[in-house]
Write a structure and sequence with these properties.
Strand content: 25-35%
Order of helices and strands: HEHHEEEHEHEHEEHEHEEEEEEEHH
Largest sheet: 8 strands, mixed
Structural class: alpha/beta
Helix content: 25-40%
Low-confidence stretches: 1-65
Distance between the termini: 98 Å
Radius of gyration: 32 Å
Number of helices: 10
């Protein structure tokens, strides 16, 4: 009996010893190899690869993501900060802020890869901090760029009626302010070399060429040295269309696959383009321009689709004769339509053969709303259709203004836009 008990105890000891040994081996394995068969790796430990008998297949190199080959272009008209707006933007310390003015229209600009606007002013505060918003001098604080960029605008046209208000110094300061804000600009040049250089911006695999021309700079051309007068901007002239075509050809030579031209032209406050405009537009399209954008009239004008054949290839091209006003104050003109503008959205796509074409488009009419009292006005750019179609009087809008918005909403929908969808926002 005693011998039997001794055998039993000895057996238990062997079993216990085996268990202890197995546990020890597992612990050592976890510390050495990390996660084994579902065991959790201890925090902070560095995993060491286990040695597998079967050979893993070589990893397949991940392919570079293909560009989408789709670009959404959005464009608006004139940004021209008037004296009333400067007074309202100025705080007690003498600083200018335009923040909040574009908050409600920002969603309508969202989604644009290239968002273009016409900056009808100089940003000459580095040389002359006496800002002005008059017909003679449109000198705007550079802080306007913060509001524009925050709203989604990333490219400014600088060839227009007020480009030369402060001479070449104003041109240079404006260019430098735009560059410092991280935005692109097209339209004014500080040298012959810049004048002769094609502006190409590649977005999502599509090379987009952009040029800007103006019908006038007023008497301010006299502020520019004579040797720079034919360099600083390119003028729209029906007798000298070849100067514009030279610029278009430079864009093509530089590899542009889609060409945009922004024209500052037209009869102020007119709802229709002139015969000269239509003739020049056709020549530009016939020579490879795909999209013509325009401003200067302070009133929206028709948008036309055209079938154009270039080098044996027929494509749809588009002309927006005027996008109207985007941000200004022309209430004193007594013309309600100066409060209205267009956001034109154009989608382009490159096919498998490398051809780029317009595939989609839309228009969002906008409204510049002014409320408050002189010297302390509150400005907001609003989606016109959204407010005009409201069932009840929108907050912050007077009955008189709401009636004007409804009237403008009806008017702009009657302007021919060649079956392009007109959206509320």
């Amino acid at each position: 009996m005693k011998r039997y008990r001794r055998r039993m105890i000895k057996g238990y000891a062997v079993i216990i010893g085996a268990v202890v040994l197995a546990v020890a081996l597992i612990v050592v394995g976890i510390k050495t190899f990390g996660k084994i068969d579902g065991a959790i790796q201890t925090p902070g430990s560095t995993p060491t690869p286990t040695h597998e008998v079967t050979q893993s297949p070589s990893p397949t190199p991940s392919a570079e993501p293909e560009p989408s080959n789709i670009v959404v272009i959005k464009a608006v008209g004139d940004i021209m900060i008037k004296s009333e707006q400067l007074q309202s933007a100025k705080d007690e310390e003498g600083n200018y802020s335009f923040e909040g003015w574009l908050d409600e229209i920002k969603p309508s600009l969202a989604g644009g890869d290239l968002v273009i606007a016409n900056l009808e002013a100089v940003l000459n505060g580095r040389s002359d901090p006496n800002y002005s918003g008059t017909q003679v001098m449109m000198n705007t604080p550079a802080s306007i760029l913060t509001a524009l960029k925050n709203a989604g605008i990333n490219m400014l046209m600088t060839a227009n009626s007020h480009s030369l208000d402060a001479g070449m110094q104003g041109v240079e300061n404006t260019i430098n302010e735009i560059k410092d804000a991280g935005m692109d600009y097209v339209g004014t040049y500080l040298s012959q070399q810049e004048h002769d250089t094609a502006f190409i911006k590649e977005i999502n695999g599509i090379k987009i060429g952009v040029a800007a021309f103006t019908a006038e700079t007023g008497d301010n051309i006299n502020n520019v040295p004579e040797e720079m007068q034919s360099v600083v901007v390119i003028y729209i002239n029906s007798q000298k269309v070849e100067r514009m075509l030279e610029k278009v050809n430079k864009l093509k030579e530089a590899g542009a696959e889609f060409i945009i031209v922004y024209m500052h032209w037209g009869e102020p406050y007119s709802d229709t383009p002139t015969s000269t405009q239509r003739s020049i537009a056709q020549k530009l399209l016939d020579n490879g321009v795909n999209l013509i954008l325009s401003s200067h009239t302070h009133s929206v004008q028709p948008i036309r689709y055209k079938d154009v054949t270039v080098n044996g290839v027929t494509k749809k091209a588009m002309v927006a004769y005027s996008l109207g006003n985007f941000l200004t104050d022309q209430v004193n003109t007594g013309r309600v339509k100066t409060n209205t503008g267009f956001i034109l959205s154009v989608t382009i796509q490159k096919d498998e053969n490398g051809n780029v074409s317009i595939t989609d488009n839309a228009v969002v009419p906008t409204w510049i709303n002014r409320s408050g009292t002189p010297g302390d006005y509150d400005y907001k750019v609003l989606p016109l259709g959204e407010y005009a179609a409201a069932e009840d009087l929108p907050e912050g809008i007077s009955e008189t203004v709401w009636a004007a918005m409804k009237s403008e909403w009806s008017r702009v929908r009657e302007i021919s836009v060649d079956n392009i969808p007109i959206k509320n926002s």
